[in-house]
Amino acid sequence: MKVLIIGSGGREHALAWKCAQDDIVKHVFVCPGNAGTYLEDKVSNVDLNLNEFSSIEKFCLEEKVELVIIGPEQPLVDGLTDFLQSKNIKTFGPSKNAAQLEGSKTFSKDFFVKYNIPTAKYKSFDNFESSLEYLHEISFPTVVKADGLAAGKGVIICQNSEEAIKALDSIFNDKAFGTAGNRVVIEEFLEGEEASFIAVVSKDKIIPLATSQDHKAVGDGDVGLNTGGMGAYSPAPIVTEEIHKKILNEVMYPTMNGLINEGSPYLGFLYAGLMIKDNEIKVLEFNCRFGDPETQPILLRLNSSLVELCKAAIDDELDTYSIQWTEKHSCGVVIASEGYPEDYESNKKVSIKENNIKDSKLFHAGTKYENEMVLTSGGRVFCATALGSDLKDAQKNAYNLVNNVEFDGAFFRKDIGFKGIK
Ligand code: AMP
Ligand code: GLY
């Protein structure tokens, strides 16, 4: 069979790499892909207009694509799954309505309250003046969030009222996040340790994936600006067996059933970003997709077929699928361009040494292939991912792989996995 993956990041390289390993898969297309997917065996990149859904339909029909997996949130929120499914093309990803869990913070916060899912206290505003008045009622720090999609940058933690006014002014008046800031959520600041809980959901069935933890801040020790994620590892010891049960019972099942009740049953990867403190969990956000970089270390641990998993979910046969993981731990370290998550330069030539490290994989993210060279083309450029007998061993292997890569302005966090090792 042939598979089409939508997206161009490290997550999509990992999805394509994993699908291509399957004997039943003849070829994997990635739209638009990156240099990593370009160089991968059995994988090629295709350039289709993602704003013109019919061009994707046409390609799927011409190439007899039997499975489409949508990586990033934007096409999901735009309704690509609904469109392709209406053309009888098997597509793994939530509908436009279900993707509102990520597409609108107000939608997701109201949903949490309606279905009794634990989350931070909040209020939602559609104008600057009323949001300012609310600042008199709350304590600090507080969190200001643009309602819509803002590529992971729409969350501002404000230590005092001046910072909150500045954040609200930039969102409402300067349109810092465009129309994504037409509404704003102001919510209580939560303390604790974060974890990512990702599951495959199909209507009323759920298969939790291996647990993981991301590193959102740009600097070692979790300091500096928030990024899309500077590295991740799996499993995450903070998610004990007891917490795992709690997450399923208090967050995942109520969400799955709530969506059925709303007439928008879920299909796809469902990602809960959680804050955990003293055995209590609260949902920070939902993503309607696999995490990036969590996908890379999680898929390196997956022993069973990803294609079969997605197909079983689409066909409402999730109960027949048995998911298999390696006992080994995995760690993924993001190599980024100097300046990220703010301005950075692109088009730097990359040199990559041959990889002799067992059970490891250098996933590309912001790269392109031009004139037989790999060039940088994004803020997060690679995710060096490796397995190990324990987290420390996985970390050592991942950092050895990082040393294989060189480009002008490359930087990475030196402490990915530190909380898990502690
Ligand atoms: P979100 O996109 O809502 O997950 O927010 C991005 C990041 O901001 C999270 O991963 C947290 O590190 C931080 N964050 C979001 N909401 C809160 C909150 N209520 N309290 C503390 N930190 C938060
Ligand atoms: N790693 C965080 C995310 O995918 O949103």
Plain-language structure description:
With 422 residues, the protein is an alpha+beta fold. It has 14 helices and 25 strands. The chain has helices at residues 10-20, 35-39, 53-63, 73-77, 80-86, 100-103, 105-114, 128-134, 161-172, 241-261, 295-301, 306-314, 391-402, 418-421; strands at 2-7, 27-32, 43-45, 65-70, 91-92, 122-125, 142-146, 155-158, 184-188, 193-202, 205-208, 213-214, 217-219, 223-226, 231-234, 267-277, 280-287, 329-337, 351-352, 360-364, 367-370, 373-376, 380-388, 405-406, 410-411. Strands 12, 15, 18, 20, 23 and 25 form a six-stranded antiparallel beta sheet that branches. It has a five-stranded parallel beta sheet with strand order 3-2-1-4-5, with helices on both faces. The chain has a four-stranded antiparallel beta sheet with strand order 6-9-7-8, sandwiched between helices. Helix 1 packs parallel to helix 11. The protein binds adenosine monophosphate and glycine (GLY). Adenosine monophosphate binds at residues 120, 143, 145, 155, 187-190, 194, 216, 226, 273, 284-285.
